[in-house]
Amino acid sequence: MTATPLLEARDLCVSYGAFDVIKSVSFSVPEQEAMAIIGPNGAGKTTLFKALTGEISCKSGTVAFRGSEVTGMPAHKRTAVGMGRTFQVSRVFLDMTATENLIVALESRHRNKRERVGGWWRTSPADQLRNEAEDLLDQLNIGYLRNEVAATISHGDKKRLELALALALEPTILMLDEPTAGMAPADRMQIVDMILDIRKQKGVAVVMTEHDMDVIFAIADSVMVMNYGEVIASGTVDEVRNSPTVRKVYLGEDMYNAAG
Ligand SMILES: Nc1ncnc2c1ncn2[C@@H]1O[C@H](COP(=O)(O)OP(=O)(O)OP(=O)(O)O)[C@@H](O)[C@H]1O
């Protein structure tokens, strides 16, 4: 008997009005695996990502998480059941410190999971949340951001904080929408290290869209290639790299620069 995939899309179709953007896409992601979605501009990567996270609805097809259908479930409920996510455009509260941002996320998780906060050894709820937030920042090696107001931190640090916010919800799968968008090459590799660390420490699966092939090769176990809303190839990083179909789509382009 094959194990139930962590995330599974079946015959997913998405349209903008009369324009079919995602055409019968099916794939599955096993527990703890990392899958990257790549393809030329306009291939439908972001649209597929939004359909998976519940930001937009599908015309037909299904999305299942741990064997339960989530197709009609709104985005915030998918997050609550374990589908953590980051956004291309930061959703950090800019007027709060990194710690305060994390406290908001942690409060939401405790509320969703009906977990008791505070009360042990005279720890107040506020102290417990602050300790948890600071511990998480330390675990991710961004403890230096504790008291920094988010508006004043660098773009790279905002991306790191976004990851921490997603992790505060203890996801089983992390949905990363271009986690290194707009970052300098050196910063990108720091995010890669952080994601690799998170996978090692927490065993979370990953689904990511990403422009940078070096980032994909460093993180992904498998790659799914899209073109004009269809899956044209999928497999391990090496299989996809050597696929004649994929090379044809990227004809005349350096594949290392053509993922986006
Ligand atoms: N809100 C929208 N309304 C109508 N058409 C849209 C909308 N968003 C995207 N599209 C179109 O849908 C197609 C797929 O877009 P999508 O953004 O999903 O592609 P992508 O692969 O993520 O592209 P990129 O790499 O440039 O971000 C494109 O032709 C795009 O113009």
UniProtKB/TrEMBL annotation:
GO terms for molecular function: ATP binding; ATP hydrolysis activity; L-isoleucine transmembrane transporter activity; L-phenylalanine transmembrane transporter activity; L-valine transmembrane transporter activity. SUPFAM superfamilies: P-loop containing nucleoside triphosphate hydrolases. Residues 7-253 form the ABC transporter domain. One of its GO terms (cellular component) is plasma membrane. Coiled coil: none annotated. The keyword ATP-binding applies. It holds the Pfam family ABC_tran. It comes from the Bacteria. The keyword ATP-binding applies. Keywords: ATP-binding, Nucleotide-binding, Transport. GO terms for biological process: D-alanine transmembrane transport; L-alanine transport; L-isoleucine import across plasma membrane; L-valine import across plasma membrane. Signal peptide: none annotated. InterPro entries: AAA+_ATPase, ABC_AA/LPS_Transport, ABC_transporter-like_ATP-bd, ABC_transporter-like_CS, BCA_ABC_TP_C, P-loop_NTPase. This is ABC transporter ATP-binding protein.
